[in-house]
Design brief:
The protein is 61% helix and 6% strand. By secondary structure, the chain is mainly α. It is globular and about 40 Å long.
C-alpha cells in the first residue's frame, strides 16, 4: 500500500488495481463487440492466463460487470454477455465506452464533460446515502 501512495506522489496520477484493469479491458471488449451479445466469455483459467491475475480478481471482475448489467453468470454454463438494453446506462464507464465506440475513439469534449458530471453525481449520492 505504501508503494502505491509513493508512486501516486511521484507520478501525480493514481495507479490502477488489477481488478480495475481487467474490468476496463473486458468492458471495452464487450462494448466493441469482441464478445457479442449472447456469447459466453472465456473460462477463468483462460482469462487468468491472459490478464495474469488470480481467480479471485476474476470473480470480483465478473461481479462488477454483472452489477453493471453487462454479463450474467450461470453455474456450469458460464458468463454470458447480456442484451444492451439490460446494461446500466447510468454507469459513467459504460457511457464513456459506448461513446468512444460510436466515435471510433474520438470523444467530443461535451461527451467527456457529461461523463464526468455523472461521476460527480454518483459520488454525491453515495455520500448522501452514507450520511443517512
Amino acid at each position: 500500500m505504501r508503494y502505491k501512495l509513493d508512486e501516486t506522489r511521484k507520478t501525480g496520477r493514481r495507479t490502477r488495481t488489477s481488478h480495475a484493469q481487467v474490468v476496463d479491458e473486458l468492458g471495452k471488449a464487450i462494448v466493441a463487440g469482441t464478445y457479442p451479445v449472447g456469447s459466453i466469455l472465456p473460462g477463468d483459467t483462460e482469462l487468468a492466463q491472459r490478464f495474469k491475475v488470480s481467480r479471485t480478481v476474476l470473480r470480483e471482475t465478473m461481479k462488477t460487470l454483472a452489477a453493471k448489467g453487462m454479463v450474467v453468470a450461470k453455474a456450469r454454463v458460464g458468463t454470458r454477455v447480456t442484451e444492451k438494453n439490460l446494461w446500466n446506462m447510468f454507469d459513467s464507464e459504460i457511457i464513456a465506452r459506448a461513446l468512444r465506440q460510436r466515435c471510433d475513439g474520438r470523444v467530443s469534449a461535451a461527451a467527456l464533460r457529461y461523463s464526468a458530471r455523472l461521476r460527480t453525481l454518483r459520488r454525491r449520492s453515495r455520500r448522501r446515502a452514507s450520511e443517512c
